[in-house]
C-alpha cells in the first residue's frame, strides 16, 4: 500500500507540473526522485535512471547504490524506460515468471550452462542462440546461472553478438559476479567496457572491490583500485576511506592506515565511529597506548561518540599493557556514558586483571558480568581457568570447570591440559592422574604434550607400568617422532637403572629417526659409565658430539669420575683436556686424584 500511495503522489505531481523532491518508503531501493518539466540532459550522480512512463514530460530519477554514474538526454531516457523497468522487475523474479520466448530462451541457456564442463565449450554450446539473447535475457541468466565462474565467458560471448548494446543492469551484474569470483584481470576487462559505455563505477562499488581484495589478502590490489577510483574522477567517500583503512590495518601496513586517515581529513570527509575503530585496532596491534589516546582525542574533537566496540578496544589495549587503573577508569566511563558493557568489554577487563595477577579484581568483574546478564564465552572461561590454576587456587579452578560444563561451553584439550600441567607443577600427582583419566573418558582429543606430561607424572608417582602403557599408546597413535615421549620413558629407566630397556629405547629412537636431546644423552652416559660399559659410553659420546652437542660440566665430571673409578686414568686425563678446550673447569679433587695416580705428564692449570 505504501508503494501505491507513493505512485499516486508521483502522478499527481506530474499532472500539476510541480517539481517535488519526493521521499519514497524504504525497502524499494530508492531514496529520492527528482522530476523535471523542462527539456535538458541530467546527470544522475552515482545512480541509475528510472521512470514510470506515466507522462511524456522529461523524467529523470535516482536509484541509489546501483554501482554506476551515467548521463542521458530526455529522448534517450524515453527509449530505455520500458527496458529498465522490465529489468528492475526481472531482478525480483525467477525465470519461470518471465513470459513468452524470454522464459524459454533463458531456461534453455541456463540448462546448457548447468551441463557445461569447460568454459571453452560455451561458444559452441550457445551458437544456436546467436542474435536471440537480449540484454535482459543475459542479465536474468547471470542472476540465475549456478556456476558464476562462467559469467565472464558469457559476457565475452555477448560482446561478439551483433545486437550487443549493454545496459547498466547487465554490466553491473557482470562486474559484481566477477568481483565475487576474484578474477582480477578479467575484472579490469569488464571495467574497461563500463568506461567504454560512458559509465563510471560509483564509490560503493569501488569500496566493494577494495574490500574483496583485502578479504583475500591482496592489499596491493586494494591500493590499485583505490587509486583507480581517484583517477576516474571520483572522490572517495566515507565508506571507501573506511574500507581502505581497514585493508591497511588487516595487512599490517599501519602507517598507511593513518596517512589515509589524514587524507580523509584533508578532503573534509567526516570520519565515523568505524573509522576510529579501525585506527584503534592499529594501536592495539602495535601496543601503542599513546597513539590510542591521540585517536580518542581526535574522535572527541570530531564529535563522534564512542560505542561499546571502541571502549572494548581501549580496555584490551590497557589490559595488555598492564595499565589496569586506566582500564578500570575507562570501564567506569563507559557505564556512565550509558553504554552497557557487553561480553567483549568484560572479557577485555577480566583478561587484563588476570594478566596482571589481580585475581580478586578479575573474580569480582566476572561476578558483575554474570549479574549483568552477559554470557561469558569460552575464551573468558579459559582465562579464568588458567588464572586460578596458575595461582593454585584449585577450588575456584574446579568451580570454573563445573560452570563451563553446566553452561555448555566446551571443556576442551586446552582446559584439561591447563589443569593437568598445574596439578603436576604443584606435585598433586593423584589429581593430575584423575583429570587425565576423565579426559580419556571424554571425546576430547589428547595432544602429544599432554601425554608427555603424564609420562612424567607416572614416573614421579612410581606408576611404572602405567608409564610404559602410555608410551605404547603414543606409538600406536603415530607419535613416533615426539622426542618427549622417549625422554619421559628414558627418565623411568634411568631412575630404575634398567640399562637393557634404556638401550632398546635408544635403538628404537634411531630406527624412528628421532634425535635424542642432550639430557637424554646425559642419562644414557650416566647409566653406562656407572655400569662400567665404557665402549657404549664412547659411542654415545661420539653420537652426541656429531650432532653438535657439547657435554656439560656435570656430564664431563661424571665421565671422569667413572673412568677414575675403574682405573682408566689416561682416558680420564684426555677428557679433562676436552673439558679445558670447552672452557670448563676441572674439579680440583678429580685433578688431584689423576695427578696422584701419576698418569698426568703435564700439570693441569
Summarize the structure.
With 605 residues, the chain is mainly alpha-helical. It has helices spanning 2-15, 74-90, 100-115, 122-125, 135-144, 151-159, 168-181, 184-196, 203-215, 219-231, 238-250, 254-266, 273-286, 289-301, 308-320, 324-336, 343-355, 359-372, 378-390, 394-407, 413-425, 429-441, 448-461, 464-476, 483-495, 499-511, 518-530, 534-546, 553-565, 569-581, 588-596, and strands spanning 21-22, 33-34, 42-43, 68-69, 71-72, 200-201. It has a two-stranded antiparallel sheet. A two-stranded antiparallel sheet has the order 3-5. A two-stranded antiparallel sheet has the order 4-6.
Note down, in words, how this protein is organized.
The protein has 605 residues and is mainly α. Helices cover 65% and strands 2% of the residues. It has helices at residues 2-15, 74-90, 100-115, 122-125, 135-144, 151-159, 168-181, 184-196, 203-215, 219-231, 238-250, 254-266, 273-286, 289-301, 308-320, 324-336, 343-355, 359-372, 378-390, 394-407, 413-425, 429-441, 448-461, 464-476, 483-495, 499-511, 518-530, 534-546, 553-565, 569-581, 588-596; strands at 21-22, 33-34, 42-43, 68-69, 71-72, 200-201. The strands form 3 sheets. Strands 1-2 form a two-stranded antiparallel sheet. The longest helix is centred in the first third of the chain and has 17 residues, at 74-90. It is elongated. It starts with a helix and ends in a 9-residue tail after the last helix. Mean pLDDT is 80; it is low at 1-66, 69-100 and 599-605. It comes from Sphagnum jensenii.
Amino acid at each position: 500500500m505504501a508503494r501505491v500511495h507513493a505512485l499516486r503522489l508521483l502522478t499527481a505531481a506530474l499532472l500539476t507540473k510541480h517539481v517535488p523532491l519526493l521521499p519514497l518508503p524504504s525497502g524499494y531501493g530508492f531514496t529520492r526522485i527528482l522530476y523535471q518539466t523542462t527539456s535538458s540532459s541530467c546527470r544522475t550522480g552515482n545512480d541509475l535512471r528510472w521512470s514510470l512512463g506515466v507522462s511524456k514530460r522529461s523524467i529523470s530519477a535516482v536509484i541509489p547504490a546501483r554501482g554506476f554514474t551515467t548521463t542521458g538526454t530526455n529522448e534517450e531516457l524515453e527509449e530505455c524506460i520500458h527496458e529498465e523497468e522490465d529489468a528492475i522487475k526481472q531482478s525480483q523474479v525467477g525465470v519461470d515468471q518471465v513470459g513468452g520466448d524470454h522464459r524459454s530462451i533463458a531456461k534453455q541457456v541456463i540448462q546448457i550452462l548447468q551441463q557445461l564442463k569447460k568454459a571453452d565449450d560455451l561458444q559452441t554450446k550457445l551458437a544456436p542462440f546467436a542474435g536471440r539473447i537480449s540484454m535482459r535475457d543475459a542479465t536474468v541468466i547471470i542472476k540465475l546461472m549456478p556456476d558464476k565462474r562462467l559469467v565472464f565467458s558469457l559476457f565475452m560471448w555477448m560482446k561478439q553478438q551483433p545486437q550487443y548494446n549493454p545496459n547498466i543492469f547487465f554490466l553491473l551484474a557482470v562486474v559484481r559476479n566477477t568481483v565475487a569470483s576474484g578474477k582480477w584481470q578479467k575484472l579490469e576487462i569488464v571495467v574497461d567496457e563500463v568506461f567504454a559505455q560512458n559509465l563510471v563505477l560509483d564509490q560503493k562499488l569501488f569500496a566493494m572491490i577494495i574490500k574483496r581484495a583485502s578479504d583475500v589478502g591482496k592489499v596491493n590490489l586494494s591500493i590499485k583500485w583505490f587509486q583507480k577510483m581517484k583517477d576516474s574522477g571520483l572522490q572517495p567517500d566515507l565508506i571507501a576511506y573506511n574500507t581502505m583503512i581497514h585493508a591497511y590495518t588487516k595487512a599490517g601496513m599501519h602507517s598507511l592506515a593513518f596517512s589515509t586517515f589524514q587524507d580523509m581529513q584533508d578532503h573534509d570527509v567526516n570520519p565515523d565511529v568505524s573509522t576510529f575503530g579501525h585506527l584503534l585496532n592499529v594501536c592495539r596491534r602495535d601496543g601503542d597506548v599513546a597513539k590510542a589516546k591521540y585517536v580518542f582525542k581526535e574522535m572527541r574533537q570530531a564529535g563522534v561518540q564512542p560505542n561499546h566496540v571502541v571502549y572494548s578496544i581501549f580496555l584490551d589495549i590497557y589490559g595488555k599493557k598492564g595499565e589496569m587503573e586506566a582500564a578500570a577508569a575507562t570501564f567506569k566511563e563507559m557505564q556512565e556514558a550509558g553504554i552497557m558493557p557487553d561480553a567483549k568489554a568484560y572479557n577485555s577487563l577480566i583478561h587484563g586483571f588476570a594478566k596482571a595477577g589481580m585475581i580478586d579484581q578479575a573474580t569480582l568483574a566476572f561476578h558483575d558480568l554474570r549479574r549483568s546478564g552477559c554470557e561469558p564465552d569460552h575464551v573468558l572461561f579459559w582465562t579464568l581457568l588458567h588464572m586460578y590454576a596458575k595461582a593454585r587456587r584449585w577450588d575456584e579452578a574446579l568451580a570454573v570447570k563445573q560452570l563451563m560444563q553446566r553452561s555448555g561451553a566446551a571443556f576442551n584439550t586446552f582446559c584439561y591440559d591447563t589443569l593437568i600441567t598445574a596439578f603436576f607443577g604443584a606435585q598433586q600427582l593423584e589429581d593430575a592422574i584423575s583429570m587425565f583419566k576423565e579426559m580419556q573418558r571424554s571425546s576430547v582429543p589428547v595432544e602429544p604434550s599432554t601425554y608427555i606430561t603424564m609420562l612424567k607424572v607416572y614416573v614421579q608417582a612410581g606408576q611404572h607400568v602405567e608409564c610404559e602403557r602410555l608410551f605404547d599408546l603414543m606409538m600406536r597413535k603415530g607419535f613416533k617422532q615426539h622426542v618427549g615421549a622417549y625422554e619421559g620413558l628414558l627418565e623411568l629407566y634411568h631412575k630404575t637403572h634398567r640399562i637393557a630397556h634404556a638401550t632398546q629405547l635408544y635403538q628404537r629412537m634411531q630406527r624412528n629417526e628421532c634425535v635424542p636431546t642432550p639430557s637424554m644423552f646425559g642419562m644414557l652416559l650416566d647409566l653406562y659409565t656407572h655400569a662400567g660399559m665404557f665402549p657404549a659410553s664412547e659411542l654415545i659420546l661420539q653420537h652426541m658430539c656429531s650432532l653438535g652437542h657439547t657435554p656439560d660440566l656435570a656430564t664431563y665430571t661424571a665421565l671422569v669420575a667413572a673412568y677414575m673409578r675403574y682405573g682408566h686414568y689416561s682416558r680420564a686425563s684426555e677428557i679433562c683436556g676436552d673439558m679445558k678446550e670447552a672452557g670448563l673447569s676441572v674439579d680440583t679433587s678429580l685433578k688431584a686424584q689423576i695427578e696422584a695416580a701419576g698418569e698426568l705428564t703435564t700439570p693441569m692449570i
